[in-house]
Amino acid sequence: MTVTDRSQELINTAAQAAADKLAHDVVAYDVSDVLSITDAFLLASAPNDRQVKAIVDEIEERLQKELGAKPVRREGDREARWVLLDYVDIVVHVQHSEERVFYALERLWKDCPELELPEDARATRGKAEEHAKVQAAEEAAELDGDWR
Questions:
Q1: What residues in the chain have per-residue pLDDT under 50?
Q2: pTM recorded for the entire structure
Q3: Per-residue DSSP letter, 92
Q4: Which of 8, 46, 56, 103 has its CA 20 to 30 A from that of 76?
């Protein structure tokens, strides 16, 4: 099996929407050979709950408006720590950065082929690490200021 054109179209639109809302580390995997329930997974993350929600809302809106696709299932909304959008052909996971590190879905799917994504989505790689470093530096500076 391989990803269908429709699945690739959904993945590309969702990945672009996630990138437009400043998602971190957007990546997609072709899981069609190992799962019979879907063709592909899209993973994205954000450093806070509000941004997770904004990314999810943008993906849902764009897929509906541009491709007429509605999720058959949406889970994890309330906490906005890990929201799953199931479009049957693809499943989108938008996670809070902490959940992304903890659950490490990439490790589970590392043997699956990675799908080509739009340039904006590829440019999100490494953003979580970059954000964590900036955050740590800000916290250290804040603590340093408290000692003076």
A1: none
A2: 0.89
A3: E
A4: 8
